[in-house]
Amino acid sequence: MHETAQITDERLWAVQKALERAQDLVARSLVAGDKRLEVVYLKTIADEDKVVRQFIRPFFEAEGDAFADYLASLVYQVPYTTPEAAVDLVLNGHLLVAYRGRAFLYDIRIVKDDQPLPADIEATLHGPQNALGHNLLLNVHLLRNRYRNAALAVELAELGEKSHTNIALLYDATRVRPKSLAILREKVQKGGIEVLFAAGQLERAFARPHRTLFPTFMVTDRPDRIVYELNRGKVVVLIHGTPFALVAPGYFFDFFSAMDDLYYPGWVRTFFLGLRFTALVVTLITPGLYVALTAFNPGVFRAQLTLSIAGSRAAVPFSAFFEMLFMMIALELLLEASVRLPKSISATSTTVGGLILGQAMTAAGLVSDIMLIVAAVVAISSFVIPVNAMFYAVRIARYPILLLCSLYGLVGLGIGLVGLIFFLAGKESFGEPYLYLPFDPKPTEKGPEGA
């Protein structure tokens, strides 16, 4: 049952009526002499120790108008405006107070997820090892500690018609790209989300449906990367309840940079960047190239290699296309299993499963030895991509190229690569060209440093 005791203030009664289904609702009327204090809050998300220590005890101890002055002096108060707004704030952990004809709301929510998490998703060897946390205020605190600049702007908002999730937009006012900021603000105001609980969900809602294979947001949990992107003029979206932030706009080449690149000498950084782009090309074209050369253009190889591939495939009853498709799907299943299984057994299960599966398929003549080598090279190359969102996009993008190669050989490979480049060249991320190069001085009206 609700904890109630003759609430008489109409403003509090309206809130109590709206929340009558909540059995954790506390609506109480306290009387001390000629003074009367009425409070409404949800005890499951509000800190009852704060209620007693900061409101009930001072109410009984204060004399005369001292308590009214005390309520007015609290810095975290929010004036009462409408019953609907008050209900939303009470659901967000606020205490609603009525005293001598005045009503206020005070933020007294319980904060338990106030510690940053370890940086396990986007690991680095030499950089900071802390990630964001689940609490929005904690995340803003972490970023302000690393970016102590008066130009850092923080805009608070709510998203989710039912969840009313707190979000924050952060940007450097002297470097931000105005067009990207305006587009992002418009999308936030438009809303269109009923329940928001994850950064990826917001990314999908903001992007155009069914045209989002390549990510236009950078999703990260690293405060150092966020600060780096803020300094480059980007906008960061923090969401309460998730340790991941969205960074917009997201350029294609941004997804191949790792934070370790900032800590290595120039030549080392250049080498590893080249290695990542080489891995991108390998994982994109190797499946289709194998099918094209095996089925359409075997004369490209030297005679010894051609005979070796033909001998390896002699017992395989499928075409090169179906052999490659079968192997790629098996790899996708192993990768998905490694993600979904508990961490304590995922590595062992997928490793043993991959070894047994590969050995059994070659022994049964379903795939060739050469195919296992090609599949292993493709899988290893895809793991080099440092950001997961681009990792998934590249994994999917290689299937259309594989299909074109199975139909037209090397010509199909050329068609696929040209079509992919044209698609990326015509794509935008919040008003910015998706293939913007980091060393290009003026992608739009502002340069990479807001000049």
Automatic annotation (TrEMBL):
It comes from the Bacteria. Keywords: Membrane, Transmembrane, Transmembrane helix. GO terms for biological process: spore germination. The chain crosses the membrane at residues 235-253, 273-293, 314-335, 370-394, 401-425. Pfam families: GerA. InterPro entries: Spore_Ger (IPR004995), UPF0353/GerABKA_families (IPR050768). One of its GO terms (cellular component) is membrane. Belongs to the GerABKA family. This is Spore germination protein. The lineage of its organism: Bacteria, Bacillati, Bacillota, Bacilli, Bacillales.
